[in-house]
Specification:
The chain is an all-beta fold. 3% of the residues lie in helices and 35% in strands. It has 1 helix and 13 strands; from the N terminus they run ββββαβββββββββ. A 5-stranded antiparallel sheet has the order 5-6-7-12-11, with no helix packed on it. It has a 4-stranded antiparallel sheet with strand order 8-9-10-13, with no helix packed on it. The chain is elongated and about 70 Å long.
């Protein structure tokens, strides 16, 4: 059973008798910080145990939290182009791809092919870039849009539902495909 929590900044503790009538802060013998305010707080009235502190957080807390990040779209390990901006929620993944190797390709010639764990971009019907995804998706839920972007690099916006609700990938691209021409 946890009855108090103490933070000691110095190895030498000063003891003073104080009683604060503000909320749950009270102590008859506590160590003080440099400002003279108590650093011990009595939480015994909360009824918490160490098991409560060690228990994993319930999944409901994370609900609809989205995570975001950038990844390289280059097969060359030393090149970090950050051309894939992804957003992950419990039920879907979205990605905005601005692949430098597609520079000069008209956005209207680009298309997307998706399987349960891969994404391929085609130009004029030929696969020019492929990646293995970090998790599995439902290919029938794919939505994408291609548009002309700055610096003559087309932008591909991609959205797909995950196969398993709540599974966290922590990124979008697991590996760049061997058949990528770029």
């Amino acid at each position: 059973f946890v009855s108090s929590f103490t933070i000691q900044k110095n190895s030498v503790a000063k003891h003073h008798r104080r009683h604060w009538n503000h909320g749950a802060i009270s102590s008859s013998s506590s160590s003080n910080n440099e400002r003279g305010t108590p650093t011990e707080v009595d939480i015994s009235d909360l009824g918490l145990t160490m098991d409560d502190f060690n228990a994993p957080l319930p999944s409901e807390i994370f609900g609809n939290i989205e995570t975001k990040g950038y990844e390289s779209t280059s097969k060359i390990p030393d090149v970090q182009d950050d051309a894939c901006m992804w957003t992950e929620s419990p039920d879907k993944m979205t990605a905005t791809l601005r692949i430098p190797g597609l520079r000069g390709q008209p956005s209207m010639c680009l298309s997307i092919l998706t399987a349960t764990n891969t994404l391929s971009i085609t130009a004029f019907g030929s696969i020019v870039w492929t990646c293995v995804l970090r998790g599995e998706v439902k290919p029938e839920t794919v939505k994408f849009e291609t548009k002309d972007g700055p610096d003559m690099i087309p932008t591909v916006e991609f959205e797909v539902d995950k196969s398993e609700f709540g599974e966290r990938w922590g990124g979008f691209i697991l590996q760049i495909g061997e058949n990528s021409l770029l």
